[in-house]
Specification:
Keywords: DNA-binding, Transcription, Transcription regulation. The protein folds into 2 domains: about 80 residues, Winged helix-like DNA-binding domain superfamily/Winged helix DNA-binding domain (Arc Repressor Mutant, subunit A, Orthogonal Bundle); about 130 residues, Four Helix Bundle (Hemerythrin (Met), subunit A) (Up-down Bundle). The protein is built from 11 helices and 3 strands; from the N terminus they run H-E-H-H-E-E-H-H-H-H-H-H-H-H. The radius of gyration is 18 Å and the shape is elongated.
Length: about 220
Amino acid sequence: MSNDENIYRQILKAIVEHQLPPGARLPEDRLSEAFGVSRTGIRKVLQRLALEHFVVIEKNKGAQVNRPSKTEAIEVLDSRILIEPQLIPALLTHWDTAQSERFRAMAIEEKRAEENNQLADAIQLTARFHYELATLSGNKVLAHFVEQLCYRSSLILAAYGTRGSVGCDCGDHSQLLDILDQGHSDKAQNWMSHHLKHIKSSLILETKPEENIDFQKLFGR
């Protein structure tokens, strides 16, 4: 793993596990000192996190952990609840043994991340599972929309989620795959709807005020 990738993963993990709360400032000089790398290297990592919407970079203000509003969090999940179940009948027309095996491999990878307490990886794998399912429906416009909603959901889960938000508390994805293998469209739609509603209800829509973060203690070597 490259040094940039390692730094990226450490900062993302700290965001997802709320060691860096929404709104926390990310000064390049202090991060550079903590990781023992140049500010240029830190800037590249922060730009990558900004492209993924986990970080916001403002001119003359620097970078900070993105802070999605509570309204945005609710609207994003409500949009997913409206759209994703409706794509089930279309994706079932493309469902076969190969697709089942592909998605089961994803579910296993996601489960492994949860069991290893790799919350950042679990959130990203959950998002991939959902937008890959949407893509299978064949509706490119809605699939792209779901993909964007899933990216925004990843940030929302990082800001407001709990371990239960990506774990079995909200339903194991392998349960959905069993239903899809049986070809039960209505049952799969109901499962997806309940699954997304559970994720929404698991959110804790409160944020702690930013504290004076000791980057050396958090990331220092």
